[in-house]
Every structure is written in structure tokens, then in C-alpha cells.
């Protein structure tokens, strides 16, 4: 099986430049970086005294929480679909 080609880009998140490497499209990787940047700025607006590492951890916690909520909703919808298909 052929290995997928990896894309490499530089993105800016919360004033710092990061190099991202992944098999997703560069557009997808830029969107991810943009969402992380937006979330960090949102949390900073609510807690301006946080240092950047605490801000990063809170951003990660919020993102994983959002992911788990969506995953649970997805699983419930899958179960409903199975029931409808009988």
C-alpha cells in the first residue's frame, strides 16, 4: 500500500509560527490552526491573566470537551439510524 503524501505548511497560532505536517489538505490544516487560534483568543478574552501554557491547556481541554460531546451525539444518531433501519 502506498504511503500518503504529507503536506507541510507554516501556520500562525496566537502569535507564534508552527510548522504543521499531515496527510490532510493544507486548507484543512489551516482551518484547524485558525480554530485553535480563535479558541485561544476567546479564552484569553475571558481570562487575560493566564500565561500562554495555561491558555494552551485550557484550549485543549475545551476542544476535547467539544469533541466528546459531538462524538456522543454522533453515536446516538448512529443508534437511532440502526433502529430506523430495523
Can you put this structure into words, describing what you see?
The chain is α+β, with helices and mostly antiparallel strands and 86 residues long. The chain has one domain (7-85). The chain has helices at 26-46, 52-85, and strands at residues 7-13, 16-22. Helix 1 (26-46) packs across helix 2.
Helix fraction by DSSP (H/I, runs of at least 4): 55-70%
Tell me the number of strands.
2
Order of helices and strands: EEHH
The structural domain count equals 1
| Euclidean distance between termini CA atoms | 37 Å
Choose one word for the global shape: flat
In this structure, how is the largest beta sheet organized?
A: 2 strands, antiparallel
Low-confidence stretches: none
Q: Give the neighbour order of strands across the main sheet.
A: 1-2
Count of helical segments? Answer: 2
Estimated structural class:
alpha+beta
**Rg over alpha carbons:** 17 Å
Strand content: 15-25%
Subcellular location: Cytoplasm
GO biological process, one term: cell division
Protein name: Cell division protein ZapA
Pfam families: ZapA (PF05164)
Amino acid at each position: 500500500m502506498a504511503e500518503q503524501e504529507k503536506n507541510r505548511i507554516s501556520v500562525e497560532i496566537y502569535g507564534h509560527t508552527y510548522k504543521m505536517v499531515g496527510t490532510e489538505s493544507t486548507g484543512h490544516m489551516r482551518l484547524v490552526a485558525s480554530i485553535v487560534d480563535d479558541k485561544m483568543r476567546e479564552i484569553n478574552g475571558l481570562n487575560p491573566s493566564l500565561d500562554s501554557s495555561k491558555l494552551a491547556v485550557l484550549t485543549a481541554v475545551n476542544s476535547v470537551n467539544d469533541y466528546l460531546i459531538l462524538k456522543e451525539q454522533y453515536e446516538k444518531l448512529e443508534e437511532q439510524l440502526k433502529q430506523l433501519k430495523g
